[in-house]
Structures are given as structure tokens and as C-alpha cells.
Amino acid sequence: MIERTPFANALTYAVMIIGFVLLIGPFIVVISGASQDLRQINSVPFSFMPNDQLFTNAAQAWSRANLGTAMLNSLIMACLITFGKVALSALTAFAIVFFRSPLKHLFFWTVFITLMLPLEVRVVPTYAVAADMFKPVGMLIEFFSGIHVGIEWNLLNSYMGLTLPLIATATGTFLYRQFFMTLPDELAEAARMDGSGPVRFFVEILLPLSKTNILALTTIMFVYGWNQYLWPLLMVTDPSYKTVMMSLVALLPSENGTPDWNVTLAGSLIIMAPPVLVVAILQRWFVRGLVASEK
Question: pLDDT tens digit string along 129-177?
Fold first, then answer.
């Protein structure tokens, strides 16, 4: 039992208020600066009072960075990454939990260990494979047979290249596995006695029960895919495939140009809108999927 005292309550509210201010402060600066004109944004001290230039600045940012194409590319990339991660992690966890194999624990811990290997660590070998998909296969063929295979095919400047190397997720596999392990064994036995095969059991029973987990993982992975910067920077040289994070550079004022930070902040506000909207819509299921004790 937790004892409540006036001092503890006051301390709790003070910590919550400080955390709220630290989190909401940058958003206030962005919203205020995006609605100001050139003189106001460069005035010292900075004024937190919004103005009426928001739509004007947003229109300039939209045209300067070609945000229409960039946001479409980021939306496609984020949706494909989200779908791939949710589907692949569900299938992986399903195989680990419900199929009898002496090596399933080894497979799980091998996948789980990859949480310690972020994209920045494995970006060089991943890029090498994406830049020449048949090179590893050709090296194996040449090693065993001595025959040189000169097939070249890469994933540069394509949606497949932006998404395929990023769809594997140890986080999603772990979340699904923990949920599947809470289900009673009698559920699988009853489905087997009813004549359900593995695919039917997965589609008709497990997926409906996993709705909160699916939506929670969708929220996380959409934001992850939308915020990708390093991988698109390596994979894209064609401007028609640029993402919004790459387009942020075009919004920065030039070294000797006009310091129109109001346009930069307006563009940042546009770029933040889709993930904020997704989180706002799915936040209820996001919280339930992560902290709910009753599945």
C-alpha cells in the first residue's frame, strides 16, 4: 500500500510539471516562431507570443523544400516499414512460441541480442549488401565452383531499398513473444482439435487477440520509420526519392542569406504533424498495449 502525504503529493506534482514544461517547451518555441515574421523571429529576447504569419511561412517552406514529394516518400516509407515490422515480428514470435524446436530459445536470444546493434553500427555491411544484392551469392558460387557470376542489382533509389533492410525488429518480436506466452496452452489445443491448422490459428485467433499489441507496435514503428535520416541519406541520390528528414537541409538559411528561421520552424511544424497525429489517434491503444496486465 502506498501512503499518500501532502509532501509526497506536492513533490509528485512538481516533478510532473517540470517534466511537462521540458517536453512542451520546444513545441511552444516552434509554434511561436513559425507564426512570426522575419523581424520578430530575429528579435532579442525571443518572443513567445504567436503571430499571424503561420500559413505564409508554411507555404514558403512547402515550396522551398518540395515537401509534397518528400512527405509522400516518407509516408510510403513509414507505412511499408510499419507493415513489414508488425507482420514479420508477429510471424517470428508465433514460430518461436508455438512450434516445438530444440533451438527455438537460441533463435529468440539471437534475435534479442540484435537490440544491442543499432542501425548506425551495422549500416556499412547493410549498405554494401543493398548496393549489390547478388555480390554475396556470387562470392559463394565462385568459392565453391570457381565460376564467376557478374550479375549486378542494387536497391539504391527505390522504396524497396528504403524499407526492406529496416523491417526486421527485435523489439516487435519480443513484445509479441511476451504476449503469446500469456495465452493458455489449452487455446492452441482447442484450435487443433477443431481442425485449425497453423495459418488459420494465427490469422483467426492470435491476430484478433493481438490487436492492442499491433496498434502499440504500429505507433512506435511509424514514428521510427518517419524519423529515419541516416539510411535514406545513404540510399537516395535521386531527388524524387528524398524524405522529409533529408529535406530539412533545404529549409535551413544559407550562410550569407536571410536568417528566415520562421520559415524553417514552419517547415519543421509541417514535418512533425503526421507522427504527432498518429500518436494522438493511437495513444490509447499504445498505452494499453505496453502496460496492460490483462490481455
Answer: 888 776 666 666 666 666 666 666 778 888 998 998 888 888 888 888 8
Q: Look up the pTM and report it.
A: 0.83
Within a 10 A sphere around the Cβ of 3, how many other Cβ atoms?
Answer: 5
pLDDT above 90: residue 81: yes
Within-domain flag for 284: no
Q: How many domains does the chain have?
A: 1
- H or E element at residue 141: helix 135-145
Task: Quickly count: other Cβ atoms within 10 Å of residue 245's Cβ.
Answer: 18
> Is 2 contained in some domain?
no
CA distance 15 to 18: 5
Span 191-205, pLDDT tens digits? 888 888 888 888 888
* Burial profile 128-157: b = 16 or more Cβ within 10 angstroms, e = fewer: eebbbbebeebeeeeeeeeeeeeeeeebbe
Cβ–Cβ < 8 Å for 155, 161: yes
269 within some domain: no
Q: What is the pLDDT of residues 100-114, one digit of tens each?
A: 878 878 888 888 787
- Cell 514460430 belongs to residue: 95
> Looking at the domain assignment, is residue 256 inside a domain?
no
Cα distances from 249 to residues 77, 171, 229, in angstroms, run 19, 31, 11
Contact 127, 234 (CB under 8 A): yes
Q: Give SS3 for 256.
A: coil
The answer to whether the CB of 57 falls within 8 A of the CB of 258 is no
Alpha-carbon distances, residue 217 vs 35, 64, 289 (angstroms): 34, 34, 8
